[in-house]
Design goal:
mainly alpha
């Protein structure tokens, strides 16, 4: 298994644990749910689900289609952008960045854009893995 497929899968499991713990906190302290709900959902969906799918997809799809990932460095960039963006969004949201405006809100938007850029890299890379070469059509 390639190093980044493994890293995506390991990080997915770390985000799963964080999401579960945060869910337990929300369940035991309902007054915190307003602020924590967004982070809980994003840790589970962008952290666990999307990271896990990315790790498995980067490992399996090139093998199923006998086509390498066309931009291997993009996998590294996806990993970095996705993690920095998600953790930045979670942190700035907890600090009030979604509501406060100003620099916190601008930072939240920048981290969200980072996460989106990482996901666009994944989508492009995997789309091209699934697209047959001209001679294969």
């Amino acid at each position: 298994m390639e190093i980044y497929a493994k890293r995506f899968t390991k990080m997915a499991l770390i985000y799963l644990v964080l999401g579960v713990v945060m869910g337990m906190v929300i369940g035991s302290q309902p007054e915190w749910s307003q602020r924590l709900r967004f982070v809980h959902i994003h840790l589970n969906l962008l952290g666990f689900m999307t990271m896990f799918i990315s790790g498995v997809a980067y490992h399996v799809l090139p093998r199923f289609n006998s086509r390498p990932v066309p931009w291997p460095a993009g996998v590294k960039y996806h990993f970095i952008l996705h993690n920095v963006g998600l953790l930045g969004m979670a942190t700035t949201h907890l600090a009030g960045g979604l509501w406060s405006g100003g620099i916190l809100h601008a930072a939240f938007v920048a981290f969200a854009a980072m996460t989106g850029a990482g996901l666009l890299i994944m989508a492009g890379n995997l789309y091209l893995v699934l697209t047959p070469a001209k001679e294969d059509q």
